[in-house]
Amino acid sequence: MAALLALVSAICYGVSDFSGGLGSRRAAATTVVLVSNAVSLVLAVLAVELLPGSTYSGRDMLWGVAGGVLGLLGVVLLYRGLAIGPMSVVAPLTAVLSALVPLAAGVIAGERPGTMAVIGVALALPAMLLLAREPSRPAAAVLSRGALASALCAGLGFGGFFVLLAQTGPGGGAWPLVAQRAASVALLLGISLVAALRQGGSVPVPGGRVLALAAVAGITDFAANLAYVIATHHGLFALVAVITSLYPASTLLLARGVLGERLARQQSAGLAIAAVAVALIALH
Questions:
Q1: Quick one: which of 99, 115, 128, 124 has its CA closest to 228?
Q2: CB 85, CB 207: distance < 8 Å
Q3: pTM of the full predicted structure?
Q4: Contact partners, residue 107, CB within 8 Å, separation at least 6
Q5: Given CA atoms 161, 234, 18, 180 in this order, what sign does their dihedral have?
Q6: Most Cβ neighbours (<10 Å): which of 56, 139, 167, 268?
Q7: What's the first-to-final CA gap in the chain, in angstroms?
Q8: Distance between CA atoms of residues 239 and 251, nearest Å
Q9: Over the stretch 215-253, which tens digit does the pLDDT of each residue have?
Q10: Alpha helices of 110-174 — where are they, by DSSP H?
């Protein structure tokens, strides 16, 4: 159950990052993230009303707010990296740290995965590194220092986000996600308003394709967060986070299918190893 939900979360995160990164190539990353977060907030509020078992808790809301701040930082940095660097390299680099942080936190907290799960984790981490390894590319696609820094900092932000959301109680349902998105939307609106006042303009509103891409990013991001939170209540959160952190696989496949970015041999090998790793973790 936990492994399946984590896999669903990984797929949805990958779709969200692809859509948001593509939208950020046509508009400012903060604008795209604001729209996607607003969509996620609406969905979270609806989920509280429609899904059974969502009980309000001040403690869960605080964890959600903290997660929202770190998650927002991670998303903005990731979208920036995806906008200025090759998607098939930036996304996997981010995933490496986003997996290591909760893995370390889980071990420190006393989680002890079984032998099969440990083997799965041991395979998952090099799989991410293979996915992240930059193949020979033309100069225009070389990973710049700015894209590298954005990817690594985003990974730390996402790793912390995974740890914080895993602290919520099993009865909270979608309430922590309401707090998470309310915090991020409020921060984004504040940043956008300050920027607009300094420039003497107004908060930009994306239109057409950018708006659609941002909406898709918001919908799939909410689905990923909800699946992740539920998964952490049914299994070891360190293992759930490792599977979830394999989301670059779907971003990579979308970049290949939609944008025509080539998969290098090591990236194809990384996809295969990641599949084996998920299977082993699921069998723990």
A1: 99
A2: no
A3: 0.83
A4: 238
A5: negative
A6: 167
A7: 12
A8: 21
A9: 999 999 999 999 999 999 888 888 898 888 888 788 888
A10: 115-132, 145-165
